[in-house]
Amino acid sequence: MDIILVPGFWLDASSWSEVTPALVAAGHRVHPLTLPGLEAADAPRAGIGLRDHIDTVVAAVDAIGGPVVLVGHSGGGAIIHGAVDARPERVVRAVYVDSGPLGAGGVINDGLSAVGDDIPLPPWKDFEQAELVDLTDDLRAMFRARAVPEPRRVASDLLQLLDERRYDVPATIISCEIPSKLLTEWIAAGHPFVDELARIHDVEYVDLPTGHWPQFTRPAELGAAILAAVERAT
C-alpha cells in the first residue's frame, strides 16, 4: 500500500522518520511530505494558503496512480480531509493522528500569533499541559531546533469541501490528548467540534495516551497503530 504522511504545523517530512520503519518493514511504500513553505526557515511563505497544501497532497495521490492511505497529524488532519474530498475514490482510509476531519468553512487555528506571513512555533507556555505530555526537555529542544514557521494563511483560510463521498472513506482516529471515549460522547451529544467526524460512516478509534506529538514521544507505538490501520485497508 502507498501511504502518504502529512505533518502538522512547523514540521517537514523528516518528522515521520522514527514512525516509518515499521511501515516499510511490512512492505508498504511511504511518502512523507514537506508542504509548501516548510522547506526551510528562510523559504518564502507569502501567498501560500490552505488550498496549496491540500493541492500538494492531491498531486501526490495522483502521482501514485493507485489506492492510497492518507495520514495527517494535527493540522495535517484538515489537509488530508481536503484531499479525501478531492479524491474520495482513491483514498481507502484516512488516519488522523491527534486530529480529525475539519468541516466545510472551518479553519485550522486562526488564534496563532503571526509575524508577517509566518507563524513561528509558540513558546511552550502557550500550549496546554496535555499537549506537552512526554515531551521531555531534550525533545522540546530538538523540536524547536527543527521547527519551521507555518505559512500564516494555512492556519486561517476557510476549508472548502464539495464532495459528500468523503463520508464514505473509512477513518481511523488515533487519540492522544483526548480519550476516544470523550470523542464518542461528544458525537452522541451533538457537539459542534466533532460534527464532521460524526458524518463519516466508518470510524475506528485507537487510544495512544501521550501528548500532541506522538511521532516524537511514542514513535514506535504510533507506527504500529498506523500499520494496523493500513492493514485494515488492504
UniProtKB/TrEMBL annotation:
<dbReference type="InterPro" id="IPR052897">
    <property type="entry name" value="Sec-Metab_Biosynth_Hydrolase"/>
</dbReference>
<feature type="domain" description="AB hydrolase-1">
    <location>
        <begin position="3"/>
        <end position="222"/>
    </location>
</feature>
<dbReference type="InterPro" id="IPR000073">
    <property type="entry name" value="AB_hydrolase_1"/>
</dbReference>
<keyword id="KW-0378">Hydrolase</keyword>
<dbReference type="Pfam" id="PF12697">
    <property type="entry name" value="Abhydrolase_6"/>
</dbReference>
<protein>
    <submittedName>
        <fullName>Alpha/beta hydrolase</fullName>
    </submittedName>
</protein>
<dbReference type="GO" id="GO:0016787">
    <property type="term" value="F:hydrolase activity"/>
</dbReference>
<dbReference type="InterPro" id="IPR029058">
    <property type="entry name" value="AB_hydrolase_fold"/>
</dbReference>
